[in-house]
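2.7 Reproducibility. Because tokenized structures are sensitive to small changes in the input, we list the exact sequence used for Spermidine synthase, including any N-terminal residues retained from the expression construct. No trimming or masking was applied before prediction.
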Amino acid sequence: MVIELGAVRLLAPWFGTSSSVWTNVIGVVLAALALGYALGARLASGRSPLRRLGTVLLLGAAFAAWLPIAASGIAAWFMPAGVALHDAAELLVWGSLGAATVLFLPAAATLGCAGPLAVEVLQRVRGGGAGRAGGHVLAASTIGSLVGTFGTTHLFIPSLGVTGTFLTASVVLAAAGLWLWFASARGTRSTVQAVGLVLLSVGGGTLSASSAEARPPGEGETLLASADSSMQSLRVIESGEGAQRMRFLRVNESLDSFQSVWKPEPGLLLGGHYYDYFALPYAWTFHELGEAPPTWDVLVIGLGAGTAVRVLEGALADGTRLRTVGVEIDPEVVELGAEYFDLERGTDDRVAVGGMDGRAALRYMDRQFDQIIVDAYANNMEIPPHLASTEAFAAMGAILKPRGWISINVGGFGLEDPVVRAVAAAAAVGLQETVSIGRIPFSRNLGVWLRKDDEVPRPSTSEFGSLGQPLPGGTGQLIEGFSVPGAWARLEPEALAESAKNDDRSAMEELQLESILLASKHLHELDDASGDGSEERVAGPAATQDDEANFASVQALQGEGVDMALAFEAARAIESPRLRQTAESRLLWGAGDLFGALDAATQGLRFVPRDPGLLLTAVNLGLIVGASQASGERLARLQEVVDTDASMDTPTRDWYRGQIAPLIDLQADAQRLRQAKERAVKLSRWSTFAMAGAALGLILALAFTGRVGGASSASTTG
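Resulting structure tokens (single pass, no recycling of outputs):
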């Protein structure tokens, strides 16, 4: 059980800890045990089962010692560094299965041999029937499994770490194996060989594990702290200098993400960090009242290292007293938050509860809140189903003040994302209120907002706020992004009743996989839009003087602090498809909708496939979102246009060449990553099928030869 439970923790930095990963690990271990039982039964018929049992335990010790160091390299085969979440659907399933098969099938099969051998040894030593010996062995192994189950989660990993836990298991197995060898060996030579094997394996594994890092910090990053809690692996990373310093808490995450963020001064983080948008309910309330409310009570479910609280500390107006209660299921995260993220705790205004589940904590709240923030998820995408049910949100509504707010962070790929819709539906039905969904610019996060006994302001109304109004903490600059087409949706609970999930029926993990698959499909469609680079020109009206004027207006309206609604209105007035799609692509890019911007650029290239401006835009966006095949073909076409277009003057040609030069290297890196991902998928499938087929074949061979041998013996005896 130590190895089985530890196996998921070894794979977590690459594949997470979803039910798919657990299923793959458990399935591999069960298959390996079946193989081990069959092989152990065959070994038990020999002359010295005691020595063979010792050998099995010594081999198990060697495997356990080397698994932590082998995990880094093998997992990297199946999940190459740099793969984005929306392009990792196949690898999350097949990669975790392949890695689990290669890593744990040999180890678990070896240890599976111990059971039949132990039964044989006990029966020969004590006599009696096989049922009696088997019952004693099963009882002892079950007790050992209980110790391993509770000890691994509550004692070994928190105190020793994942690597230390495996090494401890290795030492225990080695000690048992050596004792059996001493008991069975008639001479010293075999014993010396056994001691040497164990010392070499355990020592080599210890040295390798102590000098290896699962995923070293990137260029310009410094590792400040790392820890293995009972739930996950934690790392605190710092980058930048001076006022530009930032710290990140990374939790089992290898897919371009992190959990908590810190900068030297409290307040908005900007740059696409979703935490900033937790400040909007206060800004809307401030705007509604025309003054700062005297207090603002906030419950944070999924406190992490306290980023949401720190953003609010700098975003609230003078005169408002911020009082927070934060609930975090992993107490080690709270400790790291206090040490590295300026998480204040232990005062009346700052309460941080570590080691408690967010849903359970709702029962113990003795006051009501102006705002409840729900930011509880793991490994980029895994939302606990019991925190995304109608019952959970109904319980939250019960501790909200009248006209209080619920703010939810959801990872997804657009307003129609199945996970986003499911969470929004559960919240709307649980509170029986209208729900609003907003896309967070330059991120794959979406915000979900509800208000008890009231509605969230609409972007088109004055209650929503605008850049021209003095909202506290700089929150006004967050408003305009929601006026972009496709950035905001407002849904009634009646329309969402059928999609809302409850505690009895929650398909959250299936929806999360569906979300990634849909995003991957969309990406492949974008990647295939120029499939062979032969985008054919589609006829469209030529640009008029009014088009040119509107296009110039759009260009003038680009940048920070502009009225996005006015800019899009000017873009829509353009009749020329080339200019309209170019304008919309640039506006969407500026507003942080990268997929929408690439869509618009792709549509524009259908009308003017050799337009250098659109090609350059499409190449940049393709490289950002991961459409490397299309970006490569368009980059080649852009180079050809720049080299052969006689109408292009020299300064313009030189400018384009300057833009192209760095894109060539980026495209080469993207292509290498794409090829690495394709190799990883193939390797995952073939290694799984090969090892599973070999294991099944060996089981059948052992069973068949056993029957033949038994029949021959019976015939001879007769």
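Confidence is low (pLDDT under 50) at residues 187-214, 531-539, 707-718.
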